[in-house]
Design brief:
Belongs to the LOR family. The relative contact order is 0.16. By secondary structure, the chain is of the alpha+beta class.
């Protein structure tokens, strides 16, 4: 696994410069550069599903282990394995959609005494709205979203916007390398704008995956 990760990092770095040039053209203009992360839908732990997130230098930035099916809790860890954010699914009777509560650090649904910092919900509209998910600052306020996510996660083409309609993060497909190596849907790019927390942006990736990924078979059908 480690050998494969090293090999993947080298492939990513060979293409990363082009990706960063495109992203940073939108970010610089007198400000700091964007944070460009490569998301790999694979756990570093043997025989476990999960996510591995690599930064522009090819170093491990974030990780998720024991990611199987539709778990009630998700934990995003930093490179050293320290939990930084926990997402807990909140099911309600007579509702088709679940809420996800986002907490700082490591918590459990049965023992948490912390207040959630955000509440995330899948958005379904009968109109032609491009919104696929909404992020609220409190559990009670479901009218004024702090952030909305628009686009298509299954196609790895979506963006997160704040209340002022400014893009704070983007998800896009990883382009093939100059050698013709294609990464498919399991490896994609997360671009985070200056001033926005890359860890929180990655947490949104995990929740979008829970909301919209229906298995590798369906993803392959889309690719075809």
């Amino acid at each position: 696994m480690v050998v494969y990760l090293s090999s993947l990092s080298k492939q990513i770095e060979s293409k990363e410069d082009n990706d960063e040039d495109e992203s940073n053209n939108e970010c610089k203009k007198g400000r700091k550069d964007c944070t460009t992360l490569t998301v790999w839908r694979k756990s570093l732990v043997f025989s476990c599903n999960g996510f591995t997130v690599i930064d522009a230098r090819g170093d491990l930035a974030y990780r998720v282990d024991n990611y199987i099916g539709h778990p009630p809790e998700l934990t995003l860890m930093n490179a050293s394995g320290k939990p930084i954010l926990t997402m807990i699914r909140r099911r309600k009777k007579l509702r088709l959609l679940d809420d996800w509560l986002v907490y700082e650090g490591e918590v459990t649904a049965s023992s948490s005494s912390k207040e959630a910092i955000f509440c995330v919900r899948k958005h379904i509209s009968i109109s032609n709205s491009n919104v696929i998910a909404q992020v609220f600052e409190t559990q009670s306020d479901k009218k004024n979203a702090a952030y909305v996510i628009e686009g298509s996660f299954l196609h790895r083409s979506c963006q997160m916007l704040d209340k002022s309609r400014r893009v704070v993060a983007k998800i896009k497909r990883k382009e093939p390398t100059n050698c013709g190596i294609s990464f498919g849907f399991d490896v994609f790019v997360l671009v985070v704008k200056p001033g926005f927390d890359p860890g929180f942006a990655m947490a949104m990736v995990l929740l979008l995956d829970q909301m919209f990924s229906y298995g590798l078979f369906n993803i392959r059908r889309i690719a075809d």
